[in-house]
What does this fold into?
Amino acid sequence: MAQQQITAKKQQELQLQYSTYKDNLQQIAQKIGDVEQEAEEHKLVLETLGTLPEDRKCFRMINGVLVERTVKDVAPALKTNSEGLKNVLDELLKQYKRQQNEMDKWKKKNNVQVVQQ
It folds into this structure.
C-alpha cells in the first residue's frame, strides 16, 4: 500500500515536471514566432523604403505616437532594430534547443515514455 502511494506520488511529480517542460517550450516557441513576424515586418518596410528617395517624408510609430520623419532618418533606426531582432531570435532558438535537450535528458534519466504528445 505504501509502495503504491510512493509510485503514484512519483508519477504525479513526473507528470507535473513534464508539463512544466512542455509549457516552457511552448512559451519559447510563441516568442520565437512573434519575433520572426516582427523581423519580417521590419524587412518588408526596409525593402519598401529602399526604393524611395531619402528626402521623402514617412511616418513612424514611436511609443504609440505617430511621428513624421524622412526616409533618411527612419531607415538606419529600422536597420538597427532589425539586427537586434535577429540577435534576439538567435538567442531564443538557442534557448529552445537547450530546453529541448534538457527535457530529453530528463526523459532518459527518469525513463519517461510519452503516451500522447
